[in-house]
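Field notebook, page 363. I keep forgetting to write these up properly, so this time I am using the form the group agreed on. The chain and the ligand, pyridoxal-5'-phosphate, are recorded exactly as supplied. Prediction of the bound pose follows.
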Amino acid sequence: MKFNNVLENIQIYEAGKPIELVVREYGINAEDVVKLASNENPIGTSPVVAEVIRKNASKAHLYPDDSMFELKAALSDKFDVNDKNIIIGAGSDQVLEFISRALLDEDSSVLMSAVTFAMYEIYAKQMGAKIVRTASYTHKYDEFMEAYRIHKPKIVYICTPNNPTGDATSKAEVLRIIESIGKETLVVVDGAYMEYAAAKDVAYAITPQDLLGYENVIYLGTFSKAYGLGGMRVGYGIAQEALIHELYKMRPPFNISTLSLAAAIEASRDNAFVKKSIVLHQEQIKRYEIFAKENGFSYIESYTNFITYLFDEKYDSAQIADALLKRGVIIRNLTSYGLNAIRVTIGTAKQNDTFFRHFSEVM
Ligand SMILES: *Cc1c(COP(=O)(O)O)cnc(C)c1O
């Protein structure tokens, strides 16, 4: 069988290892495994949302409301936008896929920072498009402008806060990049961790409303991180109506499940849960910063729910990740991103205790 040529260049996305795998391979009890690898919310699913999921279980035979009227109404309220400015995806990942399919072909390129969310590259390669990266992992205006002038990319990705590095780009800097890019290029502002950045420093807070005046910009958000619904797969894109209308042409019907829809509607109103998640996070991330300073490790200042520890030549992040895994601590090794670094999702106090204990021993 001859597959599409574009497949030759695509590396399969490697997700954070599941707890079940560690139980199977290393014989560790599931309760003793600590998973800090996928930036999930450590306090779990909001009890109110879990109750709504249970209540809707008996409606699993019904397709969801394909207009997603109630969810869009909740998001319209939250962000002060019109429902026609919103498209819902099975995770914001699916919105990224719609965007790539709507805009890219073999003659186009996409521009992104040196180290950023892996799916931008994968979706672009599926369309045969070329990948252009700036030299820095942070989003530097001059580097983006130079690459933009040379390559005239169809899409520019600004992931802020950035995954897997944790750094963020200020609102002023993002707007400066947007203002300097022509209307034939789409700028995607991926705010998967925006709730954390906004709580940390208002200069980094970007809302969909800040971007809605630009016809060539889309804001992406997700329920997977601060809202604690990674397993339900709900995300959204917010942009001018004409752009959303085009993306709708790529959308399959009923693209999120009946239970996901009910969960996201409830979660979008559950501000107390997000607030609680952020308070816990802000307490716990300080421990990671102090731990690094006390032990002479460097880290990237984080605006997300994870922290990236950077190592010098004395250490190999792949070996560290492997040794931790054998002890039941799942974190993310960043070798494949070209960094000698690990990314650790900030857990609960207890999970973090376990991480520090094993990490100290491994080092
Ligand atoms: C987690 C994440 C997403 C999307 O996650 P979904 O679960 O598909 O909504 C998008 N961008 C970045 C940078 C992420 O880290």
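OBSERVATIONS:
- The chain has two domains: 5-45+272-362, 47-270.
- The first strand starts at residue 34 and ends at 35.
FOLLOW-UP: compare against the apo run.
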